[in-house]
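Chapter summary example.
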Amino acid sequence: MNGSIRRQILIPIVAIQTASIAAITAAAVGLAAWRSERQSVARLAGVIEVLERSTFPLSSQVLARMHGLSEAHFVVQDASGRPVASSEEELARRAPDGRAVSEFRPNSRSWRQWPTLSLSGRTYYAAKLPAAASSAGPGATLLVLYPESSWRAALWDVAAAPIALGLAAIALTAQATRWFADRIGRRVNRLRGQVARIADGDFQEIEPGEGRDEVGDLIQSVNQMSRQLRDMRRTIAQAERTQLLAQLAAGFAHQLRNTLTGARLGVQLHAKRCGASVSDSSLKVAVRQLELAEEQVRGLLTLGRLEQRPDRPCDLVALLRDVASLLDATSRHARVSLDLRTPDAPVVARLDEPSLRAAVLNLTWNALEAAGPGGRVRFQLIADADPIMIEVGDDGPGPPPELGAAIFDPFVTGKPEGVGLGLALARRVAESHRGGLAWRREDGWTWFRLTLPRGVAEAETEPEAETETDPAHEPRPDRG
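The structure predicted for these 480 residues follows.
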């Protein structure tokens, strides 16, 4: 069947229910009419039998009482056809001569087997019987006339209630089916509209409603598809922005690293040739700051994937201490307390050390800026858990609430002069090591947790020679 789903539900169900209710009603009416006919015929037959066996004269008063019992009219005629008594005087005058009426003794249970007479436009079921001789002498006859209208009235009385109930049932069933079909149709139309919006790129979800049925499950599935498509679009957009970021950052970082390396070598050469005093730490501070800048640049190169380095054994304790050393001068200058907590024993893992150092450096640098003058920064290594965790926390005000969901996206920052690359870089490094990066606000502190799978800490069994730095793998400045 073509057409709307509302019509496809409404028409067949209403048609079937209407036919069923009509058939049941017809059967009930037919059965009630049959019983009523049998009762009325039997009642009249009983009255006629009493009149036939009567030994008293059939006067008009007696016939009137018999009419009250059976609703039939009785006329007694003598042998010449003259009425001598009747249950209704007017009918007696209009009654035909009994000699012209065929004798009929009612022995059936149906009016349809009775002969009919028409008197003054009214139809009667008629019967003629011999009357008792005491009523009108020998040859007298008893004419019995039962109005057809009385039978029709009795028939309507028994049929009215079933027919009314049947019509009410059909109306209620049709209304209930229409309500159900409209409800299903509205939900399907809402679902169709949502699918159309998804096709146009609008991935908003719709309310599933109160129904917990197949349509509700379908709406839930479409909502889930909308969420997945929305996440996928956000991921694609983020990937596109990250790719653009990587291309831009890598291009600048490639040139900047050469400049920084050359500047650091120049300062070191100057310190060697000029022989700076032991108490003069200015050149050492300059070299450390240049090394710090080089680490930042290496992170940008990692983000851009211009440098592909194999994973190598790395002592995480030493790495965190090295980061703390790089930021020591910066924290003192910013008047921020820097607290490092690491295990006493080395924790060796196989990973891309420059990338991880750049990630931890960015997290700690962000914490220093967030804490502000007089603030506190703490970063720690938790190595006795799976995964291994590196946590960096500060007691600053924390990120703005509106940035909570997108804080790791590139170019998203709450700082007036921020670029929004540090956290994006850190997350990318964590994910490249099959780990993750998350943040939380706890007891007035903002914590960033970088996790690394326990499997990366397998380098404890590596040969000693492989833990040594291979100069061939050190990034070299591009002299071109």
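To summarize the output: The chain is about 55% helix and 15% strand.
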